[in-house]
Amino acid sequence: MSDRHAVIVGGLGVIGRSLIDHLTGDPSWDVVALSRRAPDFATTARFLSIDLRERHSATAALAQLKKTTHVFYAAYQAMPTRALEVDANLALLTNAVEALSSASSSLEHVNLMEGGKWYGSHLGPIRTPALEDDPRHMPPNFYYSQQDWVEEAAARGDFAWSALRPEAVCGFAVGNPMNLTMAIAVYAAICGELGVPFSFPGKPGAWTALYEVTDARILAQAAQWAATTPSAAGEAFNITNGDYFRWCNIWPKFADMFGLPDAEPRHFSLTEFMADKELVWDRIVAKHNLQPHAYSDIVSWGFADAIFGSDWDIARSTLKARRYGFAPFIETDRMFAELFADLQRNRIIPSTFIAH
Predict the structure, then answer these.
(1) Residues 6+ apart with CB under 8 A from 36
(2) Does one domain contain both 139 and 41?
(3) Pseudo-torsion of CA 271, 277, 281, 283, nearest 10°?
(4) Same domain flag for 49 and 116
(5) For 333-346, what is the mean pLDDT?
(6) CATH number of the CATH domain containing 149
């Protein structure tokens, strides 16, 4: 019988989907996932279709979850300004946690997903390696507002909290196109189909800057660890693969993985140049008998441009997590090779990237 009852908020995102896969593999967990859409994959998790923007209807729907012990919060709503982003994302969090804590007297822990924006890495160069107790930048920053609120709510509600700070989480989730793995793979497939060089499209400085990513599978392990380890309560942890890399060293490995010729980098906007490639992608899907996912659902070129446009070092220390007892890691080139192979096995991307 399950003695831990998890609610995953944002169950169909790249983080939420990996959490579902991880927790449902352990019989001690009962898993409920919240999402506005139905799942497109087989799972033993129970899904509730809930719009957390609607406080009253969400509260009524969540009242049934009377056994909830752990909340894993991985939802995000994009907004046009940073101030609006704070308001919208704080409301999602408060609507979810207040409803679940009211419904269940057994709530033990709320795990909050944050990210590199905590350190201001989206604004420009930061101190490296970034540490969990580095000073905050000038607000607004919705991560700050969310963590401040959950700390106060935990004290009032007699439950614990923790926060994880990954970078560019890599995995797969349809309808959540902010996924670097898919951006690279789809770009490679289109290059192969059109017979154009598979050039790194980022800024020249990004080609040689230090960078890091987080495997969604590692992040799921970290979330479970943080939510069930007493010493991790009330703490934030950087969670990455454990290594750093430079695109200039790993991009030729991508070309080899896809069977594409190596090419010199050439900076251009993916948002601009990929905007008219939907028909090309549809042709690739038909030619290779891929799963018929819509072009707009599998990749966000704006997200990729932001990653490839960071021409400064982005690197954080994961020593705190190791010191507290979280040891898993993966070499980033191996992670990409495994994820690309998994996408090919599941007919998300083609097994060959050169047009015939």
Answers:
(1) 49, 50, 51
(2) yes
(3) 180
(4) yes
(5) 95
(6) 3.40.50.720
pLDDT in tens, 235-264: 999 999 999 999 999 999 999 999 999 999
- The reply to whether 258 and 160 lie within a common domain is no
Q: Are residues 295 and 147 in the same domain?
A: no
Residue for token digits 């822990």?
109
Residue 177 pLDDT level (bands cut at 50, 70, 90): low
Do 120 and 143 lie in one domain? The reply is: yes
Can you tell me the distance from the alpha carbon of 88 to that of 77, in angstroms, rounded to the nearest whole number?
7
CA distances from 41 to 67, 124, 198 (A): 25, 38, 31
96 and 229 share one domain: yes
Contact between residue 32 and residue 65 where contact means Cβ atoms under 8 Å apart? yes
Q: Parallel, antiparallel, or unpaired for β 70-73 and 160-165? A: unpaired
Position 350 confidence tier, pLDDT thresholds 50, 70, 90: very high
Task: Return the pLDDT at 354.
Answer: 83
User: What is the tally of structural domains in the chain?
Assistant: 2
Provide, rounded to the nearest whole percent, the portion of the chain with pLDDT above 90.
Answer: 90
The reply to whether 227 and 248 lie within a common domain is no
Could you give the percent of the chain with pLDDT greater than 70? 99
Does a structural domain hold residue 320?
Answer: no
CA distances from 227 to 24, 27, 222, 236, 327 (A): 15, 17, 8, 11, 15
Residues 191/254, Cβ–Cβ less than 8 Å? no
Q: Are residues 125 and 259 in the same domain?
A: no
Residue 1's pLDDT band (boundaries 50, 70, 90)? Answer: low
The beta strands (E) that lie in the chain are given as 4-9, 29-35, 46-49, 70-73, 109-113, 160-165, 169-170, 210-211, 214-215, 235-238, 245-246
Q: State mean pLDDT over 155-179.
A: 89
Q: For residue 155, what are the domain limits? A: 4-168+216-238
Is the residue at 115 inside a domain?
A: yes
